[in-house]
Amino acid sequence: LIITISTISSWILTGPEFVLSPVLDAIYPINPVNGKRHFIEVPKSWEVAFGKMITSSVTAAWSPVSKSTQIEGRPMSDLVSEVFHNIEKANPDILNPPTEKTKFKYEVQTMNSETLNAFAVMGGSMVVLSKIVEEISKMVSSGQHNSVDVQFPDGSKATVDMSGITTADVLAALMGHEMTHVASRHSVVKIIGNLINMVGLFIARILCISKLKSSDKEYQELSTMNQRDMTVPKYKQLLEKEKNYARIGNLIDWVGSKLRGLLGLHHSRAAEYEADITGAYLAHKAGY
Fold it and tell me: Which helix (H) or strand (E) holds 126?
């Protein structure tokens, strides 16, 4: 039901695009990365404001990396900032399309942490944790990954020369990946998608239970019976039927949760693939 509604909605909205263009751009904008439309229904200005709130609350647990923290003979934070801003300058039309009135403000913070991670928050803020920069530098300087063997689906193989790869190159791919998530608005698309799925499941549950109850003559008789005529056995019978319908509702919820999980996994993998490929492209355009 949810997939069908989504498909029909997409057909209706993309068909008469020349008429509905202003409406489409507001609630069904084009992803600047892949050129496809997706439901948002959240203004970019809200996204930016919400992203700032998330960033301030999340980064409160860490302290900024000081200039004394060196990586390959230079301050770690300087290296991260340099790579980040080079990517931003080289890819303005993707990160902030000229047609968009509200612009994302891309910025990066390098924070002290033993957690191996880097992430971007909706609106443009990005956090790179010191541990992942250290590990990238160790990996590059070790020389253990100077070449990588790749096998393709058709069985053919290739050896990729990676001897010239630098720490900045890997950081660029990493940050390009995270910046793609922001530009494609993956977080908001996921939130809206989950809400649509929840509403669709709620409606499907109500319709299904209502249909079953309306076709159950015995239930109809019991539920509309005058209280004076309601005997204890009949009351227990009605109560048991209500429990059975509640069990059916719970089963629908369980099936729906599994479907949401599968759909969420599909969209998550698609978003990660898009961020991997586009992140490498953004890094390459910046000279990495």
Answer: strand 125-129
